[in-house]
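Schema walk-through. Below, the input block comes first and the output block second. Nothing else is stored per chain. Lengths vary across the set, and this one has 121 residues.
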Amino acid sequence: MHETSVAQNVINSILAESSQSNGKPVSAKISCGAFNNVNDELLISAFKTLSKGTPCEDVKLEVEHVPLQAKCRKCGSIFVFDVTSSKCGECGSEDFDFLPDQPLTLESIEFEEEDANEKED
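--- output ---
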């Protein structure tokens, strides 16, 4: 299951950043393209299961899907590729090149600052 290994890698990255931060991780955002796609439900389920008992246990994971883009060879326009209408939105040409797909990326991690009073207790 691809999503399980992605979830574990996200957890590992969050834990690595947590060790350098003065806060508790509260949310994380990943992005993926059309060819590096993940199933959101499976990924979030795997993340919840694998993060139990870790500092990531209550982290809210957000997944952003970035559409595949193409560049028209005729007019140079860049457009979002749509499999149901695979032509340039500007000139209608079907002669285009795909632009590089968005890799699976951990975009951000949000940390909640630890209260100084909590540290002293």
